[in-house]
Amino acid sequence: MGLNFLHDHNLLALAIVIAKVVFLLVLLLQIPPLMIWLERRAPALMQRRRGPNRVGLFKWRLWGLLQSLADAIKLIFKEEIAPAGAHKALFQLAPLLGVIPAFVIVAVIPFGQTITLANGMTIPLSLTQLDVGFLFILAFSSLGVYSVAVAGWASNSKYSLLGSLRASAQMISYEIPLGLSLIPIVLIYGTFDLNSIVAAQEQVWGVVKAPLSFVIFLVCMFAETNRAPFDMAEGEAELVAGFHTEYGSTKFAAFFLSEYVVMFVLSCLAATLFFGGWQIPFISHAWLLATFGTAVAALLGFGALLLKAAFFMWLYVWVRWTLPRFRYDRLMALGWKFLLPLGLFNILLTSVILGSY
Amino acid sequence: MMDSAPLVFYTLAALITFSSIMVVAARTPVISALFLVLDLFLLACVYASLNANFVAVIQVLVYAGAILVLFLFVIMMLNVPRVRSKPRIKALDGLLITMVMVAFLYMLYRVIAQYLSPLPVESAGGSNTEAVGKLLFVEHLWAFELASFLILLAMVASIVITKKRAAP
Amino acid sequence: MSPDHYYALALIMFVCGVIGITLRRNLIVIMMSIELLLNSVNLIFVAASKAHGLVDGQVMVLFIITIAACEAAVGLAMVIALYRRYGTIDTDFYRMLRG
Q: Do A128 and A241 lie in a common domain?
């Protein structure tokens, strides 16, 4: 049985693809522990207390970095329980439904310029290159809502059901302004392909050309990931953590994993669409390539993207500990009565400006 | 070198058949809805294997990501207690309709197959998205505008239908 | 791959949909069966567009998805209205139109 990608010439290409997959997986699995640590230390900093700073390795405390590791180990070894009357199969399936789309999305994000080897072989620094690039991201991030909906329904608990109803309504509502906010980007750059969009931002960042889009995208980004100030789905005070009330152990950890991975991916997308992706500001990539060689230039670009993404991750934490939670009806009103018309107006404005030039 | 396309297609086809049957056969509506999501997702995979990338992504984005969420949302909101509705047994009429439909479709299929199968033209080069876009906004512009009007109508209609009347 | 295979798959989906519409009594399941029908038609359009090397079929699929969205919105709104009126979504209980 010969699958056509196993042709001997392509064996190297296959190895490269596998290497990229492993690298991205390892990278993504580092995100949640770091974020959980940040989400305890950052508010501690803001509120003038210490936060978890004890767990370390032998005599080094490492600012408590290993607290997350300890938490992960604790969660994994906890007992798996399902509430009475839960739909067993769906209860197990729900966390997976969240994790899978979260990891799939990363496949299209470009982490650097396509590398050309000495023998003429090219290695694109993203898993796949699709001509529908960020539509793919929108499509898979919209699948994440099933995890929340199924978790709430399968738990057979009224808090979970309420939480998941709120969350799914919120997520499908904010997908519309999110999609609308990206249309001006397509109008300006004339492509859905993320690589071309990054390449086109060498001189001017996207945020300068489409500032309104960025504002709408930023708000929707918070709503799509159910993060504060839009974390109605959880609402600890009203809904006892909403859709994952009944979850414990590894499955609870899986919800956290998917939440942080989606946050990271949307941060990367924001950096890619509005802040030049892997391009370092004021330094041309061609110059870097000529001066430092391929490997260093690629690494520097990758570092630039990670830094930009890290800024948005910090923003998530910052906002969470600064703004109070929205009331639910106001959240819906903001989405439908403000962001949606604003997004339509933005498209009109961009088309008029583009058309008149 | 063997082509892997048939293998991919038959796997997808088997899964699609299974999930289509489960949509109809599952007792609880939530399970039906989830199998329909799976069905639509696999169909998107088939579209992608046919080089229809744009349609595949739109299928996932709009169909699986929005329309089916609406279904699931309504099922959960109505929260009809998990009564297992059995299929109607006295459904001789239903079976008859089904058989007629099957026969009719089989004939249709034969006819279409006769006309279409000797045309193995490969699709033209260039980006799929671009081709779809050009066709949509040049040749089918009026249909496109009408579709947008239809959506507006549907939006207004659904709001009017679900609006709670003030007590008389 | 000849397009016949795709048409056969579409046929299977269509038959599943028709069976669902005729045999099930849950309104929402009936609406989901209608979605199955629409999707089988979509599959035929995409397969035919590939077989002919034309993109028109794919444009038609976009229109069908639009119509499906409208149908789902209005249909589900009616389901909710009916549920409020009768307290059930079982079609056997709707006797208003019977003589």
A: yes
For testing the chain B interface, which of A10, A105, A142 should be mutated: the one with the most B CBs within 10 Å?
A142
Residues of B in contact with A1 (CB under 8 A): 2, 7
What pLDDT is attached to residue B19? 92
Based on the domain organization, do A32 and A100 belong to the same domain?
no
Residues 14-73, chain C: which have Cβ within 8 Å of B? Answer: 14-20, 22-26, 28-29, 31-33, 35-36, 39, 42-44, 46-56, 58-59, 61-63, 65-73
Taking the CB of residue A76, how many other CB atoms lie within 10 A of it?
A: 10
The Cα–Cα gap between B163 and A165 comes to: 19
Q: Which amino acid is at C73?
A: A
Considering only residues 27 to 46 of chain B, which have any Cβ-Cβ distance to chain A shorter than 8 Å?
Answer: 28, 30-31, 34, 37, 41
**Could you give the ipTM of this predicted complex?**
0.89
B13 interaction partners in chain C (CB closer than 8 Å): 5, 9
Q: Is residue C98 part of a domain?
A: no
User: Degrees (nearest 5) of the Cα angle A99, A103, A108?
Assistant: 155
Q: What pLDDT, on the 0 to 100 scale, is given for residue B168?
A: 55
Q: How many domains does chain B have?
A: 2
Domain boundary among A77, A92, A108: A77
Its domain, for residue A279, covers 78-356
How confident is the model over A74-116, as pLDDT tens digits?
A: 888 887 777 777 777 888 888 888 888 888 888 888 887 777 7
| Domain presence at residue B92 | no
Q: Do A46 and A182 belong to one domain?
A: no
Taking the C-alpha atoms of residue A44 and residue B159, their distance in angstroms, rounded to an integer, is 46
- Determine if residue A236 is left, alpha or beta; phi over 0 gives left, psi from -120 to 50 gives alpha, anything else beta: alpha
Task: Give chain A's domain count.
Answer: 2
The answer to whether the Cβ–Cβ distance between C69 and B151 falls below 8 Å is: yes
* B115 occurs within a structural domain: no
Query: Do A349 and A298 share a structural domain?
Result: yes
Q: What is the reported pLDDT for B115?
A: 59
**Residue A5 confidence class, pLDDT cut points 50, 70, 90:** very low
B127 lies within 8 A of chain C by CB: no
Per-residue model confidence (pLDDT) at position B119: 46
H/E run at residue A123 = strand A122-123
